Amino acid sequence: MKKYFFNTSIIFIALTLSCSTTNQRFGINNNESGSPLISNVNITLGVPADKDSTDDYIIIRSQYVLSYNPNRNVANWVSWNLNSSWYGDVPRYSGNFITDTSLPDSFNKVKHSDYTNSGYDRGHMVRSEERTKTVEDNKSTFLLTNILPQRPDLNRGVWLNLENYCEELCKKENKELFVIAGGIFHTGNKIKDLVAVPDSFFKIVVMLNRGESLRSITDSTKIIAVVMPNKNGIRNDPWWNYLTTIRRIENSTGYDFLSHVKREIQEIVEKTLFVYNKK
Questions:
Q1: Is residue 250 within 8 Å of residue 271, measured between CB atoms?
Q2: What gap in Å lies between CA 62 and CA 38, rounded to an integer?
Q3: CB 30: neighbour CB atoms within 10 A?
Q4: In terms of CB atoms within 10 Å, which end of the chain has fewer, N or C?
């Protein structure tokens, strides 16, 4: 796993491909958009960035990439690749959710018990089922840096239904997906004055055919973009009720997504509301 801590002058990196951590310092080249160039399939679309890089601690694992916010004690966003090869027969990890001890000593480290009796589920961004090829892959999804607080009806209902649809795309239609998900924060609510609670959640899914990558994205590439409220009472809602545009998500979060996609293509696909209906 690599971790990049962004500020105006330097990027700090720690490399961990399993659970061990080593700390190093590197210089990183930027692409034309100013986004750091990181060689990892899970960040193919680019590293989402906003105007304040001081609360973006970038963690790079072989299973996913995320930006951790030390003020909110949750991820700003998580980015990952998904195709049928990531699914396997490994059983779901059965222990407690895992404190990410690889975070810097100055950061709060969220524990499993911090969510207990809070009324919120420990909501995976990268779903456990989406990393079942190896034991290590599956266990990585239970690190609490991959978890945000979700109301049960969101986590176990409409959000799960979209996750299931992504699984169908991979297994039945042989699709190559590039996914980014995270929370949208407006109220400042926290669990135990520690774990920030999103008011809503976003998810962006760029849909390609298996084996295709960045160069295959065109202005007609299909994209799912949703914003779902973090509340109960929506368990049975169709996920497509919450379709939106990437541009709206950018305006709500302050992050620039798809920064590695050609600018002229971004301008089209980020404003397009793609329509899906599973009925």
A1: no
A2: 12
A3: 11
A4: C
Regions of the chain short of the pLDDT cut 50: 6-35
Q: List CB contacts of 94: < 8 A, sequence separation 6 or more.
A: none
> Distance between CA 42 and CA 177 in Å, rounded?
10
pLDDT digits (tens, 9 = 90+) for 131-178: 999 999 999 999 999 999 999 999 999 999 999 999 999 999 999 999
- Contact indicator for 124, 141 with CB cutoff of 8 Å: yes
CA 79/CA 140 separation, integer angstroms: 14
CATH annotation of 2-269 = 3.40.570.10
Respond yes or no: is residue 124 known to be catalytic. Answer: yes
Angle CA(113)–CA(226)–CA(184) in degrees, nearest 5?
Answer: 45
Q: Which of 112, 124, 186, 260 is catalytic?
A: 124
DSSP string, 90-145: PPPP-S--B--TTS-TTS----GGGGTTSS-EEEESS-GGGS-SSHHHHHHTTBGG
- Cα–Cα distance for residue pair 215/203, rounded to 1 Å: 22
Q: Can you give the pTM of this predicted structure?
A: 0.89
- Residue pair 147/124 in contact by the 8 Å Cβ criterion: yes
- Output the six-digit token pair for 203: 């998810």
* Predicted pLDDT at 28: 32
Structure tokens at 160: 């799960």
Compute the half-sphere exposure of residue 78: CA atoms within 13 Å on the CB side of its CA: 26
Q: What is the pLDDT of residue 39?
A: 75
Question: Is the sign of the CA dihedral 33, 6, 71, 75 positive or negative?
Answer: positive
Q: 83-95, pLDDT tens digit by residue?
A: 999 999 999 999 9
